[in-house]
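ARCHIVE CARD
Drawer: 12
Card no.: 0347
Subject: one protein chain, sequence and derived structure
Cross-reference: see card 0346
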Amino acid sequence: MTPRLALAAVLALAATLMSPLGAVAQPPAPAAGKARTVSSCLDSVPDPGTTAPVQICYTLFKPAGATKRAPVPMIFHSHGWGGSRTTDRASFSRWLDHGYAVLSFDQRGFGESGGQAQVMNPAYEGRDVRRLVRMVSRYGWVQMDGRNDPRLGAIGGSYGGGYQFLGALTSLQTRGKPVFDALAPEITWYDLSESIAPLGVVRTAWALALSAAALPSDALPPKVYKALVEGAAAGTWPDGSIPGTENLAEFFRRNGPKWHVGEGRRLDIPVLFGQGTTDSLFNLQQGLANWEHTLTPKARRKSIFVAYNGGHVLPQLLPAGLTVTSDPCSQKLAGGSFADLARQFMDRRLKRIKTPPDEGGLTGWNRYHLATPGGACVTTTSVAPTQEYAVGTVATTTAVGAPLPTKIADGPLRVAGSPYLTGKVTAIGLENRTFYGFAIGTSPLDATLVSNSVLPHRETSTVVGVERQVALPSIAVDVPAGQSLFLVATPLSDTFVGMGSRAPGAIAIESTVVHLPVK
Protein backbone atom coordinates (compact mmCIF):
# COMPACT_ATOMS: atom_id res chain seq x y z
CA MET A 1 0.00 0.00 0.00
CA THR A 2 1.38 3.42 -0.93
CA PRO A 3 1.76 6.09 1.76
CA ARG A 4 -1.13 8.08 0.27
CA LEU A 5 -3.44 5.06 0.22
CA ALA A 6 -2.38 4.16 3.74
CA LEU A 7 -3.14 7.70 4.84
CA ALA A 8 -6.57 7.53 3.19
CA ALA A 9 -7.29 4.35 5.14
CA VAL A 10 -6.21 5.98 8.40
CA LEU A 11 -8.39 9.00 7.64
CA ALA A 12 -11.39 6.73 7.07
CA LEU A 13 -10.85 5.16 10.50
CA ALA A 14 -10.48 8.60 12.05
CA ALA A 15 -13.53 10.11 10.36
CA THR A 16 -15.44 10.37 13.59
CA LEU A 17 -12.74 12.74 14.81
CA MET A 18 -12.40 14.69 12.39
CA SER A 19 -1.00 20.13 -12.01
CA PRO A 20 1.78 22.57 -12.31
CA LEU A 21 1.12 25.37 -14.82
CA GLY A 22 3.26 25.99 -17.85
CA ALA A 23 5.47 29.07 -18.04
CA VAL A 24 3.47 32.30 -17.96
CA ALA A 25 5.09 35.60 -18.83
CA GLN A 26 5.17 38.25 -16.13
CA PRO A 27 2.46 40.81 -16.94
CA PRO A 28 3.19 44.46 -17.51
CA ALA A 29 2.75 46.69 -14.50
CA PRO A 30 -0.84 47.95 -14.11
CA ALA A 31 -1.28 51.35 -15.72
CA ALA A 32 -0.43 54.27 -13.45
CA GLY A 33 -3.37 56.00 -11.81
CA LYS A 34 -5.93 53.34 -12.72
CA ALA A 35 -7.33 50.64 -10.47
CA ARG A 36 -6.50 47.26 -11.92
CA THR A 37 -6.38 43.56 -11.05
CA VAL A 38 -3.83 41.27 -12.71
CA SER A 39 -3.34 37.51 -12.25
CA SER A 40 -0.23 35.68 -13.41
CA CYS A 41 2.67 33.46 -12.30
CA LEU A 42 6.44 33.72 -11.97
CA ASP A 43 9.25 31.17 -11.90
CA SER A 44 10.81 30.15 -8.61
CA VAL A 45 13.34 27.54 -7.53
CA PRO A 46 12.75 23.83 -8.34
CA ASP A 47 11.53 21.38 -5.75
CA PRO A 48 14.20 19.22 -4.04
CA GLY A 49 15.69 16.69 -6.43
CA THR A 50 14.16 18.32 -9.53
CA THR A 51 15.36 20.81 -12.13
CA ALA A 52 12.20 22.45 -13.50
CA PRO A 53 11.33 25.89 -12.08
CA VAL A 54 8.19 25.96 -9.94
CA GLN A 55 5.46 28.40 -10.89
CA ILE A 56 4.17 30.64 -8.08
CA CYS A 57 0.85 32.24 -9.04
CA TYR A 58 -0.60 35.45 -7.69
CA THR A 59 -3.22 38.14 -8.12
CA LEU A 60 -2.12 41.76 -7.85
CA PHE A 61 -4.58 44.50 -6.88
CA LYS A 62 -3.61 48.09 -7.62
CA PRO A 63 -5.66 50.89 -6.01
CA ALA A 64 -6.94 53.85 -7.98
CA GLY A 65 -4.68 56.89 -7.81
CA ALA A 66 -1.42 55.00 -7.37
CA THR A 67 1.25 56.60 -9.58
CA LYS A 68 4.98 57.14 -9.66
CA ARG A 69 4.36 60.55 -8.06
CA ALA A 70 1.93 59.09 -5.54
CA PRO A 71 3.26 55.60 -4.77
CA VAL A 72 1.48 53.33 -2.30
CA PRO A 73 2.56 50.72 0.24
CA MET A 74 2.14 47.03 -0.62
CA ILE A 75 0.35 44.38 1.47
CA PHE A 76 1.17 40.71 0.88
CA HIS A 77 -1.51 38.11 1.63
CA SER A 78 -1.60 34.34 1.48
CA HIS A 79 -3.89 31.52 2.47
CA GLY A 80 -4.07 28.83 5.12
CA TRP A 81 -3.02 25.20 4.64
CA GLY A 82 -4.96 23.55 1.82
CA GLY A 83 -6.35 26.86 0.58
CA SER A 84 -5.62 29.18 -2.33
CA ARG A 85 -5.15 32.87 -2.98
CA THR A 86 -7.96 35.44 -2.94
CA THR A 87 -8.91 36.76 -6.39
CA ASP A 88 -11.99 38.81 -5.45
CA ARG A 89 -11.13 42.51 -5.36
CA ALA A 90 -13.98 43.21 -2.94
CA SER A 91 -12.28 41.01 -0.33
CA PHE A 92 -9.50 43.60 -0.01
CA SER A 93 -11.65 46.75 -0.19
CA ARG A 94 -10.61 47.86 3.32
CA TRP A 95 -7.02 47.98 2.03
CA LEU A 96 -7.55 49.26 -1.51
CA ASP A 97 -9.93 52.02 -0.39
CA HIS A 98 -7.29 53.24 2.06
CA GLY A 99 -4.50 53.50 -0.50
CA TYR A 100 -2.74 50.12 -0.25
CA ALA A 101 -1.87 47.72 -3.05
CA VAL A 102 -2.39 44.02 -2.31
CA LEU A 103 -0.72 40.89 -3.68
CA SER A 104 -2.36 37.56 -2.82
CA PHE A 105 -0.45 34.43 -3.83
CA ASP A 106 -0.79 30.66 -3.92
CA GLN A 107 1.76 28.89 -1.77
CA ARG A 108 3.96 26.26 -3.39
CA GLY A 109 1.89 23.08 -3.81
CA PHE A 110 -1.51 24.79 -3.51
CA GLY A 111 -3.98 26.60 -5.77
CA GLU A 112 -2.53 27.21 -9.21
CA SER A 113 1.07 27.18 -8.01
CA GLY A 114 3.21 24.18 -8.87
CA GLY A 115 5.58 22.02 -6.89
CA GLN A 116 5.03 20.44 -3.50
CA ALA A 117 4.89 22.15 -0.14
CA GLN A 118 8.13 22.08 1.79
CA VAL A 119 6.15 23.58 4.69
CA MET A 120 7.90 26.95 4.93
CA ASN A 121 11.45 25.85 4.27
CA PRO A 122 13.76 28.89 3.87
CA ALA A 123 15.38 27.34 0.77
CA TYR A 124 12.06 26.95 -1.06
CA GLU A 125 9.07 28.92 0.22
CA GLY A 126 11.56 31.49 1.51
CA ARG A 127 12.83 32.03 -2.02
CA ASP A 128 9.27 32.13 -3.36
CA VAL A 129 8.54 35.12 -1.15
CA ARG A 130 11.79 36.81 -2.17
CA ARG A 131 10.92 36.43 -5.88
CA LEU A 132 7.53 38.06 -5.29
CA VAL A 133 9.13 40.93 -3.37
CA ARG A 134 11.63 41.49 -6.18
CA MET A 135 8.80 41.55 -8.72
CA VAL A 136 6.68 44.21 -6.97
CA SER A 137 9.83 46.30 -6.46
CA ARG A 138 9.85 46.95 -10.22
CA TYR A 139 6.48 48.71 -10.26
CA GLY A 140 6.95 52.47 -10.26
CA TRP A 141 3.72 53.10 -8.37
CA VAL A 142 4.84 51.00 -5.35
CA GLN A 143 6.39 53.02 -2.53
CA MET A 144 10.07 52.16 -2.08
CA ASP A 145 12.45 52.52 0.84
CA GLY A 146 15.49 51.50 -1.19
CA ARG A 147 16.62 49.25 -4.01
CA ASN A 148 14.48 46.07 -4.04
CA ASP A 149 12.96 47.31 -0.78
CA PRO A 150 9.25 48.17 -1.10
CA ARG A 151 7.24 49.60 1.77
CA LEU A 152 5.75 46.25 2.67
CA GLY A 153 3.32 44.74 5.16
CA ALA A 154 1.82 41.26 5.37
CA ILE A 155 -1.44 39.63 6.47
CA GLY A 156 -2.80 36.08 6.63
CA GLY A 157 -3.50 33.31 9.10
CA SER A 158 -2.13 29.87 9.97
CA TYR A 159 0.02 28.84 6.97
CA GLY A 160 -0.62 32.38 5.76
CA GLY A 161 1.04 33.62 8.94
CA GLY A 162 3.97 31.25 8.54
CA TYR A 163 5.12 32.86 5.29
CA GLN A 164 5.29 36.24 7.04
CA PHE A 165 7.86 35.17 9.62
CA LEU A 166 9.62 33.12 6.95
CA GLY A 167 9.90 36.06 4.55
CA ALA A 168 11.10 38.50 7.20
CA LEU A 169 13.58 36.12 8.84
CA THR A 170 15.11 34.76 5.62
CA SER A 171 15.53 38.33 4.38
CA LEU A 172 17.26 39.13 7.67
CA GLN A 173 19.46 36.09 7.07
CA THR A 174 20.39 36.94 3.46
CA ARG A 175 20.29 40.76 3.42
CA GLY A 176 20.91 41.68 7.03
CA LYS A 177 17.47 43.29 7.36
CA PRO A 178 13.87 42.10 7.04
CA VAL A 179 12.37 43.34 3.78
CA PHE A 180 8.96 43.49 5.48
CA ASP A 181 8.24 46.66 7.45
CA ALA A 182 5.36 45.26 9.52
CA LEU A 183 3.56 41.94 9.95
CA ALA A 184 0.07 40.91 11.09
CA PRO A 185 0.17 37.10 11.39
CA GLU A 186 -2.75 35.17 12.86
CA ILE A 187 -2.91 31.73 14.54
CA THR A 188 0.53 30.64 13.38
CA TRP A 189 3.46 28.81 14.93
CA TYR A 190 6.83 29.30 16.59
CA ASP A 191 7.95 25.65 16.56
CA LEU A 192 6.13 23.46 14.02
CA SER A 193 7.16 20.11 15.49
CA GLU A 194 6.17 21.19 18.99
CA SER A 195 2.80 22.39 17.64
CA ILE A 196 1.92 19.15 15.88
CA ALA A 197 3.61 16.86 18.43
CA PRO A 198 4.31 18.47 21.82
CA LEU A 199 6.96 16.40 23.64
CA GLY A 200 6.84 14.04 20.65
CA VAL A 201 3.20 13.12 21.34
CA VAL A 202 1.31 13.57 18.06
CA ARG A 203 -1.86 15.64 17.88
CA THR A 204 -3.32 12.87 15.75
CA ALA A 205 -6.56 14.57 14.80
CA TRP A 206 -4.67 17.58 13.46
CA ALA A 207 -1.89 15.61 11.77
CA LEU A 208 -4.50 13.62 9.87
CA ALA A 209 -6.63 16.66 9.08
CA LEU A 210 -3.63 18.59 7.69
CA SER A 211 -2.63 15.57 5.61
CA ALA A 212 -6.15 15.23 4.26
CA ALA A 213 -6.17 18.90 3.22
CA ALA A 214 -2.99 18.30 1.19
CA LEU A 215 -4.27 15.21 -0.63
CA PRO A 216 -6.43 16.90 -3.34
CA SER A 217 -3.44 18.71 -4.84
CA ASP A 218 -0.88 16.10 -3.75
CA ALA A 219 0.80 19.00 -1.99
CA LEU A 220 3.12 17.08 0.32
CA PRO A 221 6.21 15.04 -0.62
CA PRO A 222 5.49 11.27 -0.39
CA LYS A 223 7.87 10.81 2.54
CA VAL A 224 5.80 13.21 4.64
CA TYR A 225 2.58 11.26 4.04
CA LYS A 226 4.49 8.10 4.95
CA ALA A 227 5.88 9.69 8.11
CA LEU A 228 2.47 10.88 9.28
CA VAL A 229 1.08 7.37 8.87
CA GLU A 230 4.06 6.03 10.84
CA GLY A 231 3.50 8.59 13.58
CA ALA A 232 -0.19 7.74 13.87
CA ALA A 233 0.63 4.03 14.08
CA ALA A 234 3.63 4.22 16.43
CA GLY A 235 2.32 6.91 18.74
CA THR A 236 5.40 9.14 18.49
CA TRP A 237 6.68 11.89 16.21
CA PRO A 238 8.85 10.14 13.58
CA ASP A 239 12.50 11.12 14.07
CA GLY A 240 14.23 8.39 12.08
CA SER A 241 15.32 6.54 15.21
CA ILE A 242 13.47 3.40 14.07
CA PRO A 243 15.25 1.84 11.05
CA GLY A 244 13.30 2.25 7.83
CA THR A 245 11.14 5.12 9.09
CA GLU A 246 11.12 8.77 8.06
CA ASN A 247 12.52 11.72 10.00
CA LEU A 248 9.92 14.46 10.30
CA ALA A 249 11.90 16.17 13.04
CA GLU A 250 14.66 16.91 10.52
CA PHE A 251 12.21 17.82 7.74
CA PHE A 252 10.62 20.49 9.96
CA ARG A 253 13.79 21.63 11.77
CA ARG A 254 14.24 24.90 9.85
CA ASN A 255 10.56 25.49 9.15
CA GLY A 256 9.68 28.10 11.74
CA PRO A 257 10.91 31.05 13.78
CA LYS A 258 12.47 28.83 16.46
CA TRP A 259 15.28 27.74 14.12
CA HIS A 260 16.07 31.32 13.11
CA VAL A 261 16.09 32.43 16.75
CA GLY A 262 18.49 29.57 17.49
CA GLU A 263 20.73 30.96 14.74
CA GLY A 264 20.76 34.36 16.45
CA ARG A 265 18.15 36.13 14.32
CA ARG A 266 15.39 38.24 15.86
CA LEU A 267 13.04 40.69 14.17
CA ASP A 268 13.26 44.40 14.94
CA ILE A 269 10.02 45.29 13.12
CA PRO A 270 6.51 45.85 14.53
CA VAL A 271 4.17 42.86 14.59
CA LEU A 272 0.46 42.65 15.32
CA PHE A 273 -0.17 39.16 16.68
CA GLY A 274 -3.53 37.43 16.48
CA GLN A 275 -3.63 34.12 18.36
CA GLY A 276 -6.47 31.83 19.42
CA THR A 277 -7.10 31.21 23.12
CA THR A 278 -9.12 28.11 22.13
CA ASP A 279 -6.78 27.01 19.33
CA SER A 280 -5.83 23.34 19.78
CA LEU A 281 -3.16 23.23 17.04
CA PHE A 282 -1.14 26.45 17.12
CA ASN A 283 -2.16 27.21 20.66
CA LEU A 284 -1.72 30.39 22.66
CA GLN A 285 1.74 29.24 23.80
CA GLN A 286 3.00 29.37 20.21
CA GLY A 287 2.04 33.01 19.80
CA LEU A 288 3.47 33.94 23.19
CA ALA A 289 6.75 32.20 22.26
CA ASN A 290 6.95 34.27 19.05
CA TRP A 291 6.35 37.45 21.02
CA GLU A 292 9.01 36.61 23.58
CA HIS A 293 11.70 35.06 21.39
CA THR A 294 11.21 36.18 17.76
CA LEU A 295 10.97 39.91 18.47
CA THR A 296 13.57 42.19 20.00
CA PRO A 297 12.54 44.28 23.04
CA LYS A 298 12.53 47.34 20.76
CA ALA A 299 10.16 45.61 18.34
CA ARG A 300 7.78 44.64 21.16
CA ARG A 301 7.44 48.28 22.14
CA LYS A 302 6.02 48.89 18.63
CA SER A 303 3.86 45.75 18.60
CA ILE A 304 0.52 44.48 19.94
CA PHE A 305 -0.54 40.98 21.01
CA VAL A 306 -4.22 40.07 20.66
CA ALA A 307 -5.73 36.71 21.60
CA TYR A 308 -9.29 35.92 20.56
CA ASN A 309 -11.61 32.97 21.12
CA GLY A 310 -11.17 30.89 18.00
CA GLY A 311 -8.45 29.60 15.71
CA HIS A 312 -7.89 25.95 14.81
CA VAL A 313 -10.75 24.35 16.71
CA LEU A 314 -12.01 20.77 16.68
CA PRO A 315 -14.92 19.47 18.78
CA GLN A 316 -13.47 18.75 22.22
CA LEU A 317 -15.43 15.84 23.65
CA LEU A 318 -12.90 13.96 25.77
CA PRO A 319 -12.41 15.75 28.06
CA ALA A 320 -15.41 17.99 27.42
CA GLY A 321 -14.46 21.40 26.05
CA LEU A 322 -16.02 24.79 25.51
CA THR A 323 -16.26 26.24 21.99
CA VAL A 324 -16.60 30.02 21.89
CA THR A 325 -15.99 32.45 19.02
CA SER A 326 -15.46 36.11 19.93
CA ASP A 327 -12.89 38.89 19.65
CA PRO A 328 -13.48 41.45 22.39
CA CYS A 329 -9.91 42.75 22.30
CA SER A 330 -9.94 43.87 18.66
CA GLN A 331 -13.27 45.52 19.39
CA LYS A 332 -11.75 47.26 22.39
CA LEU A 333 -8.64 48.44 20.52
CA ALA A 334 -10.02 49.22 17.05
CA GLY A 335 -13.79 49.29 17.36
CA GLY A 336 -14.17 46.28 15.07
CA SER A 337 -12.63 43.02 13.94
CA PHE A 338 -9.00 41.90 13.88
CA ALA A 339 -8.94 42.84 10.17
CA ASP A 340 -9.95 46.39 11.12
CA LEU A 341 -7.24 46.42 13.76
CA ALA A 342 -4.68 45.19 11.21
CA ARG A 343 -5.50 48.01 8.80
CA GLN A 344 -5.16 50.63 11.56
CA PHE A 345 -1.91 49.00 12.64
CA MET A 346 -0.51 49.24 9.10
CA ASP A 347 -1.66 52.87 8.85
CA ARG A 348 0.56 53.61 11.83
CA ARG A 349 3.51 51.47 10.82
CA LEU A 350 3.56 51.80 7.00
CA LYS A 351 1.97 55.21 6.45
CA ARG A 352 3.28 56.73 9.70
CA ILE A 353 -0.21 58.05 10.57
CA LYS A 354 -0.01 58.98 14.25
CA THR A 355 -3.55 59.75 15.32
CA PRO A 356 -3.63 60.59 19.06
CA PRO A 357 -5.50 58.08 21.27
CA ASP A 358 -8.09 60.69 22.26
CA GLU A 359 -8.92 61.07 18.55
CA GLY A 360 -9.34 57.37 17.92
CA GLY A 361 -5.68 56.38 17.51
CA LEU A 362 -4.44 52.95 18.49
CA THR A 363 -3.39 52.16 22.03
CA GLY A 364 -2.22 48.99 23.71
CA TRP A 365 1.37 48.91 22.42
CA ASN A 366 3.74 46.43 24.08
CA ARG A 367 0.81 44.73 25.82
CA TYR A 368 -0.98 41.40 25.80
CA HIS A 369 -4.72 41.64 25.19
CA LEU A 370 -6.33 38.28 25.97
CA ALA A 371 -9.98 37.34 25.43
CA THR A 372 -11.85 35.31 28.03
CA PRO A 373 -14.61 32.83 27.11
CA GLY A 374 -17.07 35.18 28.80
CA GLY A 375 -16.26 38.01 26.38
CA ALA A 376 -13.93 40.16 28.49
CA CYS A 377 -10.56 41.47 27.28
CA VAL A 378 -7.72 41.23 29.82
CA THR A 379 -4.86 43.63 29.15
CA THR A 380 -1.57 42.87 30.89
CA THR A 381 2.16 43.49 30.62
CA SER A 382 3.12 40.00 31.80
CA VAL A 383 1.84 36.44 31.34
CA ALA A 384 4.12 34.97 34.02
CA PRO A 385 2.64 33.18 37.06
CA THR A 386 2.09 35.33 40.13
CA GLN A 387 0.53 32.97 42.69
CA GLU A 388 0.96 29.36 43.82
CA TYR A 389 -1.76 26.90 44.82
CA ALA A 390 -0.91 23.63 46.58
CA VAL A 391 -3.36 20.92 45.50
CA GLY A 392 -1.80 17.79 47.03
CA THR A 393 -1.55 14.61 44.96
CA VAL A 394 -2.81 14.53 41.37
CA ALA A 395 -3.03 10.97 40.10
CA THR A 396 -4.49 9.41 37.00
CA THR A 397 -4.48 6.08 35.27
CA THR A 398 -2.78 5.84 31.87
CA ALA A 399 -4.02 4.31 28.61
CA VAL A 400 -7.57 3.96 29.96
CA GLY A 401 -9.75 5.83 32.40
CA ALA A 402 -11.86 8.95 32.86
CA PRO A 403 -10.70 12.57 33.27
CA LEU A 404 -10.09 13.50 36.91
CA PRO A 405 -10.61 17.17 37.94
CA THR A 406 -8.81 18.51 41.04
CA LYS A 407 -9.99 21.82 42.49
CA ILE A 408 -7.41 24.60 42.49
CA ALA A 409 -9.35 27.62 43.76
CA ASP A 410 -12.84 29.09 44.07
CA GLY A 411 -14.08 32.14 42.17
CA PRO A 412 -14.20 34.99 41.74
CA LEU A 413 -10.80 34.67 40.11
CA ARG A 414 -9.17 36.04 36.94
CA VAL A 415 -6.32 34.06 35.34
CA ALA A 416 -4.51 35.22 32.21
CA GLY A 417 -1.17 33.90 30.98
CA SER A 418 1.06 30.82 31.02
CA PRO A 419 0.67 28.51 34.03
CA TYR A 420 2.63 25.42 34.97
CA LEU A 421 2.74 22.89 37.78
CA THR A 422 5.55 21.45 39.85
CA GLY A 423 5.65 18.29 41.92
CA LYS A 424 7.21 14.88 42.49
CA VAL A 425 6.31 12.52 39.67
CA THR A 426 6.05 8.74 39.97
CA ALA A 427 5.36 6.64 36.87
CA ILE A 428 5.76 2.90 36.58
CA GLY A 429 6.56 1.33 33.22
CA LEU A 430 7.61 2.66 29.83
CA GLU A 431 6.07 5.49 27.80
CA ASN A 432 3.59 6.67 30.40
CA ARG A 433 1.55 9.67 29.29
CA THR A 434 -1.19 11.82 30.68
CA PHE A 435 -2.79 15.07 29.55
CA TYR A 436 -3.50 18.21 31.61
CA GLY A 437 -5.80 21.16 31.14
CA PHE A 438 -7.95 23.68 33.03
CA ALA A 439 -11.70 23.59 33.54
CA ILE A 440 -14.30 25.64 35.36
CA GLY A 441 -17.61 24.56 36.86
CA THR A 442 -19.62 24.31 40.03
CA SER A 443 -18.21 20.83 40.68
CA PRO A 444 -15.98 18.20 39.05
CA LEU A 445 -19.10 16.77 37.41
CA ASP A 446 -19.88 19.81 35.25
CA ALA A 447 -16.38 21.28 34.79
CA THR A 448 -15.46 21.99 31.14
CA LEU A 449 -12.12 22.89 29.57
CA VAL A 450 -11.69 26.64 29.24
CA SER A 451 -9.06 26.64 26.49
CA ASN A 452 -10.49 23.71 24.50
CA SER A 453 -7.12 21.99 24.75
CA VAL A 454 -4.82 19.88 26.89
CA LEU A 455 -1.06 19.38 26.92
CA PRO A 456 0.72 16.04 27.39
CA HIS A 457 3.21 15.01 30.02
CA ARG A 458 5.42 12.09 29.06
CA GLU A 459 7.66 9.80 31.07
CA THR A 460 9.62 7.46 28.80
CA SER A 461 10.79 5.21 31.65
CA THR A 462 10.03 4.40 35.27
CA VAL A 463 10.54 7.29 37.69
CA VAL A 464 9.81 7.52 41.41
CA GLY A 465 9.41 10.83 43.20
CA VAL A 466 11.31 12.88 40.60
CA GLU A 467 10.85 16.67 40.69
CA ARG A 468 9.25 17.89 37.47
CA GLN A 469 7.92 21.13 36.02
CA VAL A 470 4.97 20.42 33.73
CA ALA A 471 3.70 22.90 31.13
CA LEU A 472 -0.02 23.65 31.21
CA PRO A 473 -2.15 25.33 28.51
CA SER A 474 -1.99 29.11 28.47
CA ILE A 475 -5.40 30.53 29.35
CA ALA A 476 -7.43 33.66 29.94
CA VAL A 477 -10.54 33.10 32.05
CA ASP A 478 -12.77 34.73 34.61
CA VAL A 479 -13.97 32.22 37.22
CA PRO A 480 -17.20 33.68 38.65
CA ALA A 481 -18.38 33.43 42.23
CA GLY A 482 -20.05 30.09 42.82
CA GLN A 483 -17.72 28.26 40.42
CA SER A 484 -14.20 26.87 40.76
CA LEU A 485 -11.08 26.43 38.67
CA PHE A 486 -10.00 22.79 38.26
CA LEU A 487 -6.86 21.06 37.05
CA VAL A 488 -7.99 18.21 34.77
CA ALA A 489 -5.78 15.12 34.40
CA THR A 490 -6.86 12.64 31.75
CA PRO A 491 -5.29 9.50 30.24
CA LEU A 492 -7.05 10.12 26.92
CA SER A 493 -7.74 13.06 24.62
CA ASP A 494 -9.59 13.04 21.32
CA THR A 495 -7.12 15.61 19.95
CA PHE A 496 -4.34 13.09 20.69
CA VAL A 497 -6.35 9.99 19.75
CA GLY A 498 -4.22 6.86 20.02
CA MET A 499 -1.40 8.80 21.71
CA GLY A 500 -2.00 7.73 25.30
CA SER A 501 0.36 5.46 27.24
CA ARG A 502 1.61 2.36 25.49
CA ALA A 503 0.33 0.17 28.37
CA PRO A 504 -2.06 0.63 31.31
CA GLY A 505 -0.48 2.14 34.40
CA ALA A 506 -0.59 5.35 36.41
CA ILE A 507 1.13 8.69 36.83
CA ALA A 508 1.01 10.36 40.23
CA ILE A 509 2.28 13.85 41.09
CA GLU A 510 2.77 14.39 44.80
CA SER A 511 3.14 17.79 46.49
CA THR A 512 1.60 19.35 43.39
CA VAL A 513 1.76 23.13 43.16
CA VAL A 514 -0.09 24.96 40.38
CA HIS A 515 1.56 28.25 39.41
CA LEU A 516 -1.08 30.65 38.05
CA PRO A 517 -0.89 34.11 36.44
CA VAL A 518 -3.60 35.67 38.58
CA LYS A 519 -4.66 39.20 37.66
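Annotation on reverse: The chain is about 25% helix and 30% strand. The radius of gyration is 24 Å.
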